[in-house]
Amino acid sequence: MQDFLHIASKMYYEGKPIISDSEFDLLAHKHNYNKVGYTVTDAIPHTYQMYSLQKCFDISKAPLNIDDCICSPKLDGAAVSLLYADGCLELALTRGDGKQGRDITDKMSTLVPTEIMDKRLIQITGEVVAPSSIPNSRNFAAGSLGLKGEEGFEEFKTRPLVFVAYDATPELSEQYSGALRRLEFHGFTVVDSFDTSGYPTDGLVYRLCDNLKYLRLGHTSNHPRGAFALKEQAEGVITTLEDVVWQIGKSGVVSPVAILSPVTIGGAVVARATLHNIEYIRDLNLEIGCQVEVVRSGEIIPRVLRRIE
Questions:
Q1: For residues 12 and 285, is the Cβ–Cβ distance under 8 A?
Q2: Checking phi first, is residue 86 left (phi over 0); if not, alpha (psi -120 to 50) or beta?
Q3: Which single residue of 84, 96, 199, 251 could bond 40 by disulfide (Cβ 3.0 to 4.6 Å)?
Q4: Contact 54/229 with Cβ under 8 angstroms?
Q5: CATH fold of 44-230, please?
Q6: Given this model, what pLDDT does residue 20 score?
């Protein structure tokens, strides 16, 4: 299962997910999978590590006092770092594994200021997002950053993408809101004033207002201790696993498919769901006749999340 989650993580960050966010979160939690991002072969190190956010699904169990935090939308796009030196954009990188990413400076120079007034060495982080009206808009944004060659660059320039900044290192102000205002002053669109009504989000971000306290709390190996993401756990529908059949995909790979008692999910009648592979079946301890929870997010193929005891 660790290998499967590693592949799922890699495909997610490349803009070609094979399972939904809620499915990944559930499996990652169950199997204590903490790796974030994916290893880039043609990698360049981020000047400052890009951390993921600790996930919280119940605000009553929040790891911070939310009264001490600023709340902003959690945009669902592709995370990017921008490095400025002596006021000039020197390097833009995809998130990669958080420690290193792929050089996308040419593309990002069409979306962000190439010069700012601050002459220090500054890394600005944010999200490249596409409008929700585009099918699979998160994948569209991430895939756009992977376009290659001159033809790909010209295609990138025509796409309706926006970079929304949400942080800078070192901090630009003692208060997080002050840092965002400084980014706005330098010409960036920032997360707390960005109109997200036409863009995809997948939760809320709570971050300490006090940047000095945020710095004092530090980080784990994966997450800052001074911020977290509040996410909604997608609710599935319970039905009966009637049978398992095997099908051959276009690539020639044989994979199992669950035959279900028909249920309606998101306005569609679902009677089949993918089971990935035999290890997935064993890991969920599935048996013919057992009750299972099934989800269907948007246009994502229905999948069995878990067995209901």
A1: no
A2: left
A3: 96
A4: yes
A5: D-amino Acid Aminotransferase; Chain A, domain 1 (3.30.470)
A6: 57
Residue 192 corresponds to which amino acid? D
Q: Which of 74, 107, 157, 231 is catalytic?
A: 74
Q: Cβ distance 97 to 103 under 8 Å?
A: no
When pLDDT is averaged across residues 21-37 and rounded to a whole number, the result is 60
Better-scored residue on pLDDT, 29 or 136: 136
Asked whether the beta carbons of 76 and 200 are under 8 A apart, the reply is: yes
Calpha distance 33→24 (Å, rounded)? 10
Whether 87 and 119 have beta carbons less than 8 Å apart is answered as yes
Determine the CATH number of domain 236-309. Answer: 2.40.50.140
Give the sign of the dihedral formed by CA 296, CA 232, CA 129, CA 219. negative
- Go through the chain and tell me how many residues it has: 309
Matching CATH topology for 44-230 and 236-309? Answer: no
Q: CA-CA distance, 276 to 10, in Å (whole number)?
A: 16
Please confirm, yes or no, whether 16 is among the known catalytic residues: no
Residue 21: the pLDDT is 57
